[in-house]
C-alpha cells in the first residue's frame, strides 16, 4: 500500500458516508462515535507512515531510508571497510538519486541489505598503481612498492643467478602510475605476477591417465607439443605419472624481459671439401683421398635473450685453436661399363669366407658368407637391374639383381642400401655396405647366386 494521498482518501470517504447517514436520519446518533473512530485511524496512519526516501542508482531501487544521512552512514561504513581491506582510498562515481516517499519503520531497508546491493550496483573505484606497457595498463596493485616488486619478480623469472648480466631490461616501455581502478581489477602481488607471465588468469588442468604421453595429451587438446612443454617447464615428458596435473594454458607473457650477457664458448670450424678428377674411377663414383677434419675456435660473444630465448648474438672476439683440414675427394671420369649382365661375376666384396654353400646345422645354406666390418663396400657382381631393395624376412636389408639369362644375385644382411628398385647398375658399382641385419650372428655379407630361381654354389662363379 502506498502512503502518498492516503489521508485525503480517508477524508473523502468519511464525508460521503456522513452524507448518506444524514439522508437516512441516523447521522445525529452515530456522528460522534464515527468521527472519533476515524480521527483515531487518521492519526495512527499519519504517525506510522512518516517521511522517507527511496534511494536509486541508475533507476534501480537500492532501498528505502528515513533520511539521507542514514544512507550516507551506510556508504561511509562500506568505504571504511573496503579501505581497510585494500589499504587505499575507495571512490564512488555513480549518480545517486533520492525520491521523497512515506514508509513505516518496517518498510525501511536494513543497512546490510543496502550494503550488498551497493557492492553489486556501484561502480566502486579504488586508488592503486597500474603497471603499463607501451601506455596500456596490464595489471594493477595496491601500492607503488608492490608494483615495483612485481616487476622485479618478472625479471627474476628469466635470470640465472650464476650468470653475470651486462643488462636486464624490459623491451616494452614500462611505467608504474597511480590509477583509479575497478575494485575487482586490483590484484595481490602473486596474482599480478601470474597474469604477466602467463598472459591470463585462466586455469585449465589435465590429469594424466594411464597410457598417455605429452604427444597424446597435446593431440587431444589440439596443442603443439612444444607449447605444452612451455606450459609445463618443470615437468619431464619422459616421466609422466598417473593423476599428475598438466597445465593446458600456453604462456603468452605480457612483458618481454631482455637480458644481455657476455658468453665464452668453443665452436667447430667446418672443413672444406675439394674435388679431384681421376680416370681411375667411373663417372658417378667418388672416393676420399684425404679425410677432412673440423677445426676449433674460441668465441667471446654478446648474447641478447628475450624471455630466456636467444634473440641475437654479436661476436666480439675470436681466436683459432686449431685450423680445419681440407677433405680431398676423388671424382671419377671414366665411362662405366654397360648396365647389363656380361655373363661373368666378380667378387662382390672383400672379406673372409666364413661359411660355405650347402648343408649346415641340419639345413641347407643357400649362399656363402663373407665376413667383414660394418660399412665395408658391397659391389654388383655383374651389371643388371635391381628387382628388390628393402627388408626381407631373415635376410635383413637386402638387394636382388637380375642379370638376365635367368641369373640373379642376392646381397643380404646389409647395413645400408645405396640403390633402389628399378635402377640399372653396372658391374663393380657400389650398391650397399656390409651389416648385421636380419637373422645374423655377426657382420657379414650373405651372397647368393640363383639360376632359374634355384640357389647354386657361388664359388663356381667367384673366388675366395
From TrEMBL:
Region Disordered, annotated ranges: 329-349
Any one GO molecular-function label of the UniProt entry: metalloendopeptidase activity
Membrane-crossing residue ranges in chain numbering: 29-49
InterPro entries in the cross-refs: Cell_wall_metabolism_enzyme (IPR050570), Dup_hybrid_motif (IPR011055), G5_dom (IPR011098), LysM (IPR018392), LysM_dom_sf (IPR036779), M23ase_b-sheet_dom (IPR016047)
Swiss-Prot/TrEMBL keywords: Coiled coil, Hydrolase, Membrane, Signal, Transmembrane, Transmembrane helix
Coiled-coil residue windows: 144-196
Domain G5 as annotated: residue spans: 255-335
Residue intervals of the LysM domain: 204-248
Stored Gene3D superfamilies: Glucose Permease (Domain IIA), LysM domain, Resuscitation-promoting factor rpfb
Listed PANTHER family: MUREIN HYDROLASE ACTIVATOR ENVC, PEPTIDASE-RELATED
Identification of the protein by name: Murein DD-endopeptidase MepM/ murein hydrolase activator NlpD
Amino acid at each position: 500500500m502506498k502512503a502518498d494521498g492516503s489521508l485525503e482518501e480517508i477524508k473523502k470517504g468519511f464525508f460521503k458516508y456522513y452524507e448518506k447517514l444524514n439522508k437516512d436520519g441516523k447521522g445525529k446518533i452515530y456522528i460522534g462515535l464515527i468521527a472519533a473512530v476515524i480521527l483515531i485511524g487518521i492519526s495512527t496512519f499519519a504517525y506510522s507512515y512518516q517521511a522517507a526516501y527511496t534511494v536509486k542508482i541508475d533507476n534501480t531501487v537500492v532501498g528505502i531510508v528515513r533520511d539521507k544521512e542514514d544512507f550516507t552512514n551506510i556508504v561511509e561504513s562500506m568505504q571504511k571497510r573496503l579501505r581497510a581491506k585494500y589499504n587505499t582510498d575507495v571512490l564512488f562515481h555513480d549518480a545517486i538519486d533520492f525520491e521523497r516517499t512515506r514508509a513505516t519503520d518496517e518498510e525501511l531497508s536494513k543497512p546490510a541489505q543496502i550494503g550488498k546491493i551497493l557492492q553489486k550496483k556501484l561502480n566502486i573505484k579504488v586508488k592503486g598503481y597500474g603497471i603499463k606497457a607501451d601506455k596500456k595498463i596490464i595489471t594493477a596493485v595496491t601500492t607503488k612498492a608492490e608494483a615495483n616488486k612485481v616487476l622485479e619478480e618478472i625479471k627474476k623469472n628469466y635470470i640465472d643467478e650464476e650468470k653475470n648480466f651486462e643488462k636486464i631490461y624490459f623491451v616494452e616501455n614500462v611505467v608504474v602510475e597511480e590509477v583509479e581502478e575497478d575494485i575487482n581489477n586490483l590484484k595481490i602481488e602473486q596474482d599480478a605476477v601470474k597474469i604477466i607471465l602467463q598472459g591470463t588468469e585462466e586455469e585449465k588442468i589435465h590429469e594424466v591417465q594411464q597410457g598417455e604421453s605429452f604427444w597424446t595429451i597435446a593431440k587431444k587438446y589440439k596443442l603443439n607439443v612444444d607449447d605444452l612443454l612451455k606450459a609445463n617447464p618443470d615437468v619431464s615428458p619422459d616421466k609422466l605419472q598417473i593423476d599428475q596435473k598438466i597445465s593446458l594454458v600456453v604462456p603468452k607473457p605480457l612483458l618481454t624481459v631482455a637480458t644481455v650477457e657476455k658468453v665464452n664458448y668453443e665452436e667447430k670450424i667446418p672443413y672444406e671439401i675439394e674435388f679431384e678428377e681421376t680416370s681411375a674411377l667411373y663417372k658417378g663414383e667418388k672416393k676420399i683421398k684425404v679425410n677432412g677434419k673440423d677445426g676449433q675456435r674460441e668465441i667471446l660473444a654478446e648474447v641478447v635473450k628475450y624471455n630466456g630465448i636467444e634473440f641475437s648474438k654479436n661476436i666480439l672476439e675470436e681466436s683459432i685453436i686449431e685450423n680445419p683440414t681440407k677433405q680431398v675427394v676423388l671424382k671419377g671420369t671414366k665411362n662405366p661399363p654397360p648396365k647389363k649382365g656380361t655373363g661373368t661375376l666378380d667378387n662382390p666384396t672383400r672379406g673372409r669366407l666364413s661359411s660355405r654353400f650347402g648343408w649346415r646345422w641340419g639345413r641347407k645354406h643357400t649362399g656363402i658368407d663373407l665376413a667383414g666390418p660394418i660399412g665395408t663396400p658391397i659391389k654388383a657382381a655383374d651389371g643388371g637391374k635391381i628387382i628388390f631393395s628393402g627388408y626381407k624376412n631373415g635376410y635383413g636389408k637386402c638387394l636382388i639383381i637380375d642379370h638376365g639369362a635367368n641369373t640373379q644375385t642376392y646381397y643380404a644382411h646389409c647395413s645400408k642400401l645405396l640403390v633402389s628398385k628399378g635402377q640399372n647398375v653396372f658391374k663393380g658399382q657400389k650398391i650397399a655396405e656390409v651389416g648385421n641385419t636380419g637373422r645374423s650372428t655377426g657382420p657379414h655379407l650373405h651372397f647368393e647366386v640363383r639360376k632359374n630361381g634355384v640357389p647354386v654354389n657361388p664359388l663356381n662363379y667367384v673366388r675366395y
